[in-house]
Amino acid sequence: MTRTESALKSHLRRYTRCRIQECLYHQSRDHRKFQYARQGIDLVEQLVKEIRGVTSQDNYSFAAKYAHFFIDPTLPILDSYAEWMLARHLGRELQSKDPRRYHRFTEDIETLKRFAGLTCNCADLDAYLWVAGEYWYWKDHREYSINGDLRALFEKLQGNSTAQPLLAALLDIAATAEG
User: For the CA atoms of the chain, what is the radius of gyration?
Assistant: First the structure.
């Protein structure tokens, strides 16, 4: 890559980052009017739409994290591991049919909390769904990249005969599914 190409790429990244920040600022500057109910959830969908206009990508995870950390900490953080674990816990019959991804995700979280009798806060459930999802993925795809800290922990626990039954019970893993 030439210096000119490198400079152009760097400028484009800075421009894209600034454009995303500008979109997010305009979308969130009046965040006081949003409530978790439907408005907060709609805000995440709107952030995704605005970011898509700049990047041509659906950045649900980024939009959900931004909304959670900078607008309303009761909004759940969406990532593929959390979605996968929700689907695993709920099964097809209990999953939301809403075509909007973040709406579907939040409805599935509320369904899981209701059916499992959970009273935990959003951050605790997010942490469980993320770590459990990464663990399940790691068990079947050890050659793929996951969070480095979690990989080290999973590898350490894998050889621990005391930890295995606890992990199995926590994650609802059948004893025969040991990997």
Answer: 19
Sequence letter at residue 96: S
User: What is the per-residue pLDDT across 42-97, written as a single tens digit (0 to 9) for each?
Assistant: 889 988 998 888 888 888 999 999 888 888 888 999 998 899 999 988 988 999 99
Indicate yes or no: pTM above 0.90.
no
Q: How far is CA 168 from CA 21, 55, 163, in A?
A: 42, 40, 9
Quick one: 54 and 108 in the same domain?
A: no
- Which of 127, 123, 83, 88 is CA-nearest to residue 102? 83
Q: Flag whether 141 is in a domain.
A: yes
Phi, psi of 35 (to 5 degrees): -120, 160
Burial class (CB in 10 A: 0-12, 13-18, 19+), 134: buried
b/e for 11-36, b at 16 or more Cβ within 10 A?
Answer: eeeeeeeeebeebbeebbeeeeebeb
**Where is the domain boundary, 46, 70, 94?**
70
Containing structural domain, residue 50: 3-70
CA 86 to CA 93: how far, in whole Å? 12
Measure CA 23 to chain center.
21
Mean pLDDT of the chain: 76
Higher pLDDT, 26 or 126: 126
